[in-house]
Design a protein that fits this description.
There is one protein chain. About 25% of the residues lie in helices and about 25% in strands. The chain is α/β, with parallel strands linked by helices and about 220 residues long. The chain has a single domain, classed as Spore Coat Polysaccharide Biosynthesis Protein SpsA, Chain A (Alpha-Beta Complex), CATH 3.90.550. Strands 5-4-1-6-10-7-11 form a seven-stranded mixed sheet, with helices on both faces. Helix 2 links the parallel strand 4 and strand 5. The protein starts with a strand and ends in a 16-residue tail after the last strand.
Length: about 220
């Protein structure tokens, strides 16, 4: 059973504030996305990788791939205007033999082998899997006018990370339904599966280190 990792590295990174894609920002001696790709390249449960990029930086991404030994990258696909569109482009690029699909943010360079393994293993008995973390902060709920209306029990909430894993037919169907409904506002893939009631979402434990690089200050010294 082929397992394909889709790495989403097509974001413009407007909040990042740099002069290039945040996935191409330098982190010590490599770019952010190189660390991400390296984690999936070395994981024995991953058979192939589809890299979804911002076409504006195609030259830089191709140069990055060429200077590394990323033998598992089978396709480089242009992303869309939103994360959802980029994910869709990756999903429809999967070969029919790809039965298990992992979708991961390219800007999460500290993903561990354990998280990848746990997600793949969970797909043996399930159709949709998300990596999550406990919420350690108090949460406030506001109405559309900015007024505080509720302080929910934080123990009932989880923070969502990636990778998220799916059986190919499930995530394909979710994207097709969203496209037919002209929905482009889903910020993660499990949200689509949940919204369309296509499968139960099973959760595996994330890690604090698996944070998403959003701002320049998120880059370690």
């Amino acid at each position: 059973m082929t397992t394909t990792a889709i790495i989403l590295a097509s974001g413009e990174g407007s909040r990042f504030g740099g002069s290039s894609s945040k996935q191409l920002a330098k982190l010590k001696d490599k770019t952010v996305v190189e660390y991400t790709l390296d984690a999936f390249e070395k994981n024995s449960n991953i058979n192939e990788i589809i890299l979804v990029i911002n076409p504006k930086y195609r030259k830089e991404f191709i140069e990055m791939i060429n200077r590394n030994s990323f033998n598992k990258i089978c396709k480089v696909v242009d992303g869309g205007m939103t994360r959802q569109e980029s994910s869709y482009n990756g999903v429809i690029s999967c070969r029919p033999i790809s039965k298990k699909i992992l979708i991961h943010d390219g800007a999460r360079p500290f993903v561990s082998d354990r998280m990848i393994d746990d997600t793949v293993v969970a797909l043996n008995q399930n159709e949709a899997v998300s990596v999550v973390m406990n919420s350690v902060d108090t949460l406030y709920e506001f109405d559309t006018n900015g007024s505080l209306i509720n302080i929910p029990n934080r123990s009932l909430f989880k923070r969502v990370q990636t990778p998220q894993g799916f059986r190919l037919e499930i995530i394909r169907k979710a994207h097709e339904l969203a496209k037919n409904d002209s929905r482009t506002d889903f910020t993660d893939d499990c949200s689509m599966v949940f919204y369309y009631k296509l499968a139960s979402i099973v959760c595996v434990e994330g890690e604090e280190a698996n944070k998403k690089i959003t701002f320049v200050d998120d880059l370690p010294e």
